[in-house]
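Summary for the steering committee. The consortium agreed at its last meeting that each partner would contribute one worked example illustrating the joint modelling workflow. Our contribution is presented below. We chose a case with several input lines so that the handling of multiple components could be demonstrated. No manual editing was applied between input and output; the record is shown as generated.
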Amino acid sequence: MLTRVKKENFVLRFWSTLHLASQRLLKPNLSAGFGLFVGCLVVGSVLASEPVYIGFDGAYAQKTSTSAQAIELGTQLAISQINGAGGVLNGRPLVLVTSDNHGIAARAKDNFVEFAERPDLVAVYGGKFSPATMQTMGLSNELSMLSISVWGSADPISENPSDYPFVYRLSLRDQWAIPAMMRHAKERYKADRLCEVMPQTAWGRSGDRALSANLERLGQTVTYTRWYNWGETGFAEVIKSCVRSGGQAVILIANEQEGAQWIKAMSALSPEQRVPTVSHWGVTGGALHEMVGTAVNEVDFDVIQTFSFINNTRPQAVALAREILADLRFSTLESITSPVGIAQAFDMIHLLAMAINKAGSTNRVAIQKAMQTLGTYEGVIRTYTNPFSDTNHDALTAEQVLFVRLQADGALFPISVK
Amino acid sequence: MLRDEVSGGVTRLIGLQLLFTLLLLAIVTLAGGFYAVKTELDHKKQIISTRISTELSSMVNSLNALAESPVLWTALTDTTDKEAFLTPLLQSLNRSEAFQVSILDYRGREILVPQKPLAAAADYQSFLAQQVGARGLSFSVFSGSDGKTYVGILFPIVSPLTDSVVGHALSIYSLEASLAQLRLSDDTKVVITLDAPVSGTNTEIFGGDGFWTMASVSRDRITTLLGDYVFYLRVSESYGQVVLGVLLLLVIITGGGLIALRQGRRWANDFSRRTLFRFDQLLVLTRQIIQGQPVDSLEDERGDEISEIRQTLGKLLTEQRQTFELIRTSASVFKTAGEAIMITSSDGRIVEAIPL
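What follows is the complete predicted structure of the assembly.
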């Protein structure tokens, strides 16, 4: 069943790549069919060579999630750029192959194994669900397959490069993301007493560890802790308990579904019962605004990010935004969903392409070695200078952290520009 | 001869009555034994059926509650540290000796199983291979490598976040462990199937488990929050012991009958001898009378028919003697007297002759 889906996905993504490439090279008002035809001709010479595959195992089946689609879009855009410029390894095209892990660790593990069996597949991207990526870490060693997280933030993913040399990340890391959220709560909401609300997952536990490790340094205390499970509702009592405990702000670790429940519960309370929320970015990996509507205007709900297209003057970001807007899916910068997924996947593909070229082959061990000495790349998020080393497999740092506010139309406005 | 006839007749009468009584007793004993065995079997089957239905219903409802549990959804999307969250959950469910719940992943592979599983994993692999991927509840009855019967229930756990199967809850129900608490006899055999048996649902007097075996097959329901499910229950029990008991009872009754018959014959002889004794006396008296021998008194105060005969006979004998005396007197008168007075009856017959 999975194989069939994968094949279908592969065909779909393959032609999607061609279509996207044709759109990059031709006027958008050309008919889709003609664009595709011309696109085929343009990239035909590149595709004539044996492709180099990149796998992406995303949670496509999550009904409200937009993260997988965003990562795929960012990947496809980067692949189109690279293939348009001649591909990798002297003319071989990059091709994205996707699979759906439904956000389930066991499926992610199986998909990873299937990806690893595919010749010339050099790396597997992991998506928003840290536990899914964490399940593949051991396999990455066994199968010598690069496992690259482009959205997961749980610390274990990259905290031991020597133990898991094939695991990389271009994403937030809780070790510095959580302290940033705590600082944000202190500076913006004068919150010294925090409540923490987190899921019973590796992600939640990673956030809890990071929070506990920084309380003393930041002069903050936790007055109320609540662990929840996926699908739980009824956060009103949690908020009331937090307020009763004297909490001044909430550090929330959640995805869009629990985030929506949280915002609805908060907005339904009277203003004096509400408490500001600094949320982890999982909530922006889905159609949160569609689930909460204008309720989001009623609450203080700030979300950590690593990237925003809005008011971003970095040339690479502007260029990427232009490309995205050329695709008719988005009409404005504000309407681009899950921007961190797009940007992080985009930059990571370029870094990976550099590693492939540096390795000179699709040998995964050689590519892993090349990842350690990449040189410099001007990405849309930052300038990467040897982002990975033997002791560091994180491409981003705390410097990329910013906070945004969700608008009722889904826009994620950086707080400093509101 | 008459005595033999009376004795034989009475003996036949007693024998017939005994035979009829014995036959009646045999029929009542056999019918009663059969009814008792069947009633007890039906009663047992009802108890077993109720227990199985209740336990399976309870299991399905527990699995349903488990499948609706956010704890499980979360644990199945993140199997890291699964023991910390799933183990207490499973422990709370696996308190019964009759069934155990295991958590499997979306392909039916073990994520968390009880430390001491009821059935070996190899025993239900074919069930998993057939049912993993199916939507909805699946049942299977299988024999374990230990020779015991198990019911497997596979419940796909669908997360509302994805509308896809994130794992499975597998419950293994041990029929033997469950029924052990009912303390059934060793010769009671219970077979549970999900398909209707070829023989249909009825009572087999001579079941397939042996000649002296009665089996009762019924169609039963497992009523759950998710709907009703059907299973077939066959309870068989050997009634050889009962048959032996009935046969022994019949032998005893027959023996008793034979003794009674012997006693009856003796009694019939006594009865005929006792009854015909006075008749014999009468016969002897009659013979003596005929032979002209002197007889004792024929008086008999009993007042029955023989008394009447004896009295009649005595009266006849007296009248005969009187007549004889009269005739002898008349003859003497005619022979010796010159003159005599003759008294006659109205019809001219000489009644008395008196010599002068």
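Chain A has two domains: 2-172+314-400, 175-305. Chain A touches chain B through 30 residues (CB under 8 Å).
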